[in-house]
Amino acid sequence: MLRLLRLLLLLLLPPPGSPEPPGLAPLAPGAPPQAPDLLYADGLRAYAAGAWAPAVALLREALRSQAALGRARRDCGASCAAEPSAALPAQLLGAPEPDSGRGRTQESWEPLLLRAALRRAECLTQCTARRLGPGGAARLRVGSTLRDAFRRREPYNYLQRAYYQMKKLDLAAAAAHTFFVANPTHLQMREDMAKYRRMSGVRPQNFRDLETPPHWAAYDTGLELLEHQEAGLALPNLEEALQGSLAQMENCRSDCEGPEEQQEGEEEEEGARSQGGLYEAIAGHWIRVLQCRQRCVADIATRPGRSFPVHDFLPSQLRRLHEAHAHVGNLSQAIENVLSVLLFYPEDEAAKKALAQYQAQLGEPRPGLGPREDIQHFILRSQGEKRQLYYAMEHLGTSFKDPDPWTPAALIPEGLREKLREDQEKRSWDHEPPQPKPLTYWKDVLLLEGVTLTQDARQLNGSERAVLDGLLTPTECGVLLQLAKDAAGAGARSGYRGRRSPHTPHEHFEGLTVLKAAQLARAGTVGSQGAKLLLEVSERVRTLTQAYFSPERPLHLSFTHLVCRSAIEGEQEQRMDLSHPVHADNCVLDPDTGECWREPPAYTYRDYSGLLYLNDDFQGGDLFFTQPNALTVTAQVRPRCGRLVAFSSGGENPHGVWAVTRGRRCALALWHTWAPEHREQEWTEAKELLQESEEEEEEEEEEMPNRNPSPEPPSRKLQRVQDKTGKPPRVREEL
């Protein structure tokens, strides 16, 4: 039956060349959603076979069915919660008292609880059957693999290429942009996005996000207007952002009430899985629902593609609202919002001072003027859930990581306060940008690119260090090595002009900047492929370095240098010096005191460093890290093609290079900065220079469709991985 429905779905697809409706309008209005996992799997099979139109139809319907399934669950949950007969008794919603007797107390609450649960289940079953067809939600149950794929927006990655093949460039750009927003470090999509922007048939308005919750757009618009001192214009956007945030919170909380197996893909909370009978199972499932609901605070505050939520998201919105209302003279609304801030932080001095100022300006007191009702409801409900979770921690041995900094200390049981305080002191690094979460994020994102984290800071015996492998293929390493060789053969050395290394008389040192490479390519002295690759690889390293070390603060390239060190034959016997002495990149290292002075002549604006190696066919030349005394080696890394060593540039990472005693060692050295005023201007000039040649070539290529109406397809290189458990194949495509 499902196969027949999907066949009918294909027949609904517009014929080739017909106009496509904007966005993703339903193909079959009013029809109940079909199984998203089957639709998605069939869509990937059609995609892999090059059947672009069926692939688009199936992938689009998989997206719609998944969205319809979520809406049905949320709507049914809300309507059934409003049914008086299916509502939980009010006396059961608070945290239980540890000293509760048996007999009459048990007889009073047990029938009430079970009767309400049975009626709620009956209501939900009937509602979902009406919305989703026979079998309801059980028929369309989705596994964790598909949920993860939809969360990462993988369908849009396939859709963008299929639309490209169908010559629907506006929809291809929208799908690509939608995927890229949630996967900003996906290097292939970054390149594809750049190519879409250069296509004559794609307009700026085509780059629209089809998935991001609307409260983020209102939030960003409001902030931008506030920066331009347009408080009156900002207010509607700020209010829309707050209302949208609360609405998205309700959607997230509703999703937490899905089938129990829906939680399996998530990180299990310690002790949450029940091992006992009926009541232990009920308690275990309820605890997981509460934990999920509490995580919704962080979920709605985390932008797509980001690893960390915006700090104190809801209180910060209320602060901006009361300030904006006060700025335009809406004192009553300003008081409502500042009182709402005080619900989160009753001792906030700035909020108390602002309240006193608004009340003085308002004059006579206004009866009924208090905090916002929606914020009061949110806080009371959240505190009630926290009480139950802390009770479970204390008496059932479960765990709970409170996402909110505003939780009152009095709400935490006394028996837990000391333990939580000790845990916080042991993990003081929680206040710093944490490392474990970016590592998980890297595993999710970078494995798709073939990049692996080989060693982290702990394995390298230091802080803010990492070794990544797979950033370059052997072919790409060969292209860059040839570029360095051709540039040196032409006598073009930039950075260091002498034949001898500035660090040792026993080695030759050759350096090439990105601008010099672009100039040589423009003159025909070296191949343009190598110069372009040098530019692309430097941006690739910057993107990955930012994603790993600084996901919330943009990094800029400050200097890029392709360097080769060659051992001078006959001068290596009994050699005692280093290829590069121990140093730090943004401060002057004093080994005697262990201090590193961040002052000239050091490049004090450098914040992170990277070394991307191109070869390993030489002796010596390993990178090593030391303690601040510049003597005790703490870690050593052997160069190899495509290996990146990235680290912070300060005194916490003194490093040097062992002598190169035979052969030629080449690497791309990169330094990054948080300061935009120190970004590498030569990189921009090199990019513009290479784009001039590229645009001339593209102008010639754009004449080709007149002779052949089909666009040049993306690379057909596909990497298919078929999981033994029947998971859909993962396909990597390139434009």
Question: Overview of this structure, please?
Answer:
By secondary structure, the chain is α+β, with helices and mostly antiparallel strands. Helix content is 48%, strand content 11%. It has helices at 2-11, 36-48, 52-81, 104-132, 136-139, 144-151, 154-165, 169-182, 187-198, 214-227, 231-255, 278-300, 313-328, 331-344, 349-362, 373-396, 414-426, 436-446, 474-489, 514-523, 528-549, 681-701; strands at 452-455, 465-469, 507-513, 556-567, 580-583, 588-590, 595-597, 608-613, 618-620, 623-626, 633-637, 644-648, 655-657, 660-673. The strands form 3 sheets. Strands 1, 2, 3, 4, 8, 9, 12 and 14 form an 8-stranded antiparallel beta sheet that branches. A 4-stranded antiparallel beta sheet has the order 5-13-10-11, with no helix packed on it. A two-stranded antiparallel ribbon has the order 6-7. A hairpin with a 4-residue loop joins strand 6 and strand 7. Helix 12 crosses helix 16. The radius of gyration is 30 Å and the shape is globular. Residues 252-274, 681-735 are annotated as: Disordered. Residues 560-674 form the Fe2OG dioxygenase domain. InterPro entries: Leprecan_dom, Oxoglu/Fe-dep_dioxygenase_dom, P3H, Pro_4_hyd_alph, Pro_4_hyd_alph_FE2OG_OXY, TPR-like_helical_dom_sf. Residues 681-690, 720-735 have a biased composition (Basic and acidic residues).
